[in-house]
Amino acid sequence: MKNRGALLLMQIAIAAALILVWYVGSSVPIGGKFLLPKFFFSTPAEVLARIQKMFSTASIWRHIHITLTETALAFFIGSGLGIVIGFWFARKPTVAAVLDPYVKAANALPRVVLAPIFMLWFGLGLWSKVALGVTLVFFIVFFNVYQGVKEVNPVILANARMLGMNDRQLMRHVYWPAALSWMFSSLHTSVGFALVGAVVGEYLGSAAGLGYLIQEAEGVFDVAGVFAGMIVLAVVVLVIDWLVTLIENRLLAWRPRATERF
Amino acid sequence: MRPDVSTASPDQAKPAVELRGVEVAFRLADGTDYRAVRDIDLAIAPGEFVTIVGPTGCGKSTLLNAVAGLVSVRGAVRIFGSPLAGLNRRAGYLFQQDALMPWKTALANVAVALEPAGVSAGEARDRAGEWLQRVGLANFMDRYPHQLSGGQRKRVALAQTLIRDPEILLMDEPFGPLDAQTRALMGDLLLSLWSADRKAVIFVTHDLDEAISLADRVVVMSAGPAARIIAEHRINLPRPRVSADIRLEPRFHALQRAIWADLRDEVMRAYASGAAGAAA
Question: Measured between alpha carbons, how far is B37 from B60 in angstroms, rounded to an integer?
Answer without folding.
Answer: 8
